[in-house]
Amino acid sequence: MLNVATRPVIFSHSNPSALHPHPRNIPDDLIRACAATGGVVGINGIGSFLGQNDNSSETFARHVDHVAQLVGPQHVALGLDYVFDAQEMDDYLAKMAHTFPAELGYKKGVRMVAPEQLERIVQTLQTWGYSDTDLRRVLGGNLMRLARSVWKPSCGTATP
Questions:
Q1: Is residue 87 part of a domain?
Q2: What is the pLDDT of residue 82?
Q3: Nearest-angstrom CA–CA distance, 82 and 94
Q4: Structural domain tally of the chain?
Q5: How many CB atoms lie within 10 A of CB 131?
Q6: Three-class DSSP category at 120
Q7: Which of 6, 75, 114, 155 is the most buried if burial means most Cβ atoms within 10 Å?
C-alpha cells in the first residue's frame, strides 16, 4: 500500500518495534516508508505496546523520539487512547479474550498514558532538545497538515 499511495499515509496508533518487539508495533522500514509518503506515525500510549505494560512518560517520550530521530519530527504525532474506567477495560478484555489474547499483554491491569501525563511528556522532550516548533508538530500540527493534504471538500464546503 505504501508503494502505491498517492497521498500521505497515517499509522494512527503505532509504536516502533525497535524499542519494544510487540506484534502490534511497526519496524523502522515501515516508519521510513510512511514518512516517504509525507505521512505520520501516531504513537500509542498502551503500556503493552510501549514495553512490559510501561506507561511512563519517559518511555512514551522515547517512542516519540525514536520516530523523530529516524524520520524527523514532522512525521510523528500522538495516537493516544485512554479509558477512564479501568474496570470497564478489564471486563472488556476478559469478555473479548478470543480477540485480545492475554499473552500479548491484553489482560487485567493494562496501563495507558493518561491525558495528565502530556505536560511531563512535553517537558521530557524539551530536555532532550525538542524545539517549540517540533513540539507543536507532534502535539497536533502534523495531524492537521496531513488532514489538510488528504481531505477533499464536498459540495462547496471549505477545506479544514
A1: yes
A2: 83
A3: 18
A4: 1
A5: 11
A6: helix
A7: 75
Q: What angle do CA 95, 100, 106 make, to 5 degrees?
A: 95
Report residue 153 as a C-alpha cell.
Answer: 471538500
At position 62, the amino acid (one-letter code) is R
Half-sphere exposure of 82 (CA within 13 A, CB side): 11
Give the total residue count for the chain: 160
DSSP H or E segment with residue 34: helix 28-36
Q: Hey, what's the cell of 130? A: 525538542
CA distances from 150 to 42, 134, 153, 155 (A): 16, 22, 10, 16
pTM score, whole prediction: 0.90
Look at residue 146 and tell me whether its pLDDT is greater than 90: yes
> Residue 83 has what pLDDT?
84
CA distances from 13 to 38, 46, 48, 116, 154 (A): 17, 9, 13, 19, 27
We report the CATH number of the domain holding residue 108 as 3.20.20.140
In a domain, 129, yes or no: yes
Residues in contact with 141: Cβ distance below 8 Å, sequence separation at least 6, in sequence order: none
